[in-house]
Amino acid sequence: MRSGLARALLVAIAAAWLAGCNTDGSYSNLFDSKTSGTDAFASAPPAGDLDTASLGVPAPAEPGLLGGDPNDDLNLGKKHYRATNYGLAEKYFRRAVENHPRDAEAWLGLAASYDRLRRFDLADRAYGQAIGIVGPTVEILNNQGYSYMLRGDYRRAREKLITAQRQDPRNKFVANNLQLLEDSARKGKAIE
Q: Would the pTM count as exceeding 0.85?
């Protein structure tokens, strides 16, 4: 049984490698099929799902590609977040990270939902999980800066946003949040 499973795994790896080959000798990225995130929060690096059923390999234990189904937890979380139903968004993002703990996009959505629910302690933990997966990306730093603005912590908000701006000086979301920070600091009032 083990040798059969090992053989099937080798066949799957070889098929994945061959599927990425182009006739010019270069390689394409097999894993660019993940849906992109919304502008409400950042998307994670592309991930993919290899169709191993056609190779005779059993389906993976983890359900399909997170974000590939319009009714999966990640997309339902995004839908509810955009509709400002932050409690429902939190529910679906939490389920997404429970089922796919290495999906940074789900963690970032969960953190953004916690921010809107004013559960900053949980938001900080979710941001930490996302950073542990993909590092301190511009999107995560931007969202953390916004989180600190919600709390009225302008110093930490500025630190995060300036760090994000250094990584991507042309990012319009970071620029907008820096402007919002300046306006909030001038008025002496946290954003809502």
A: no
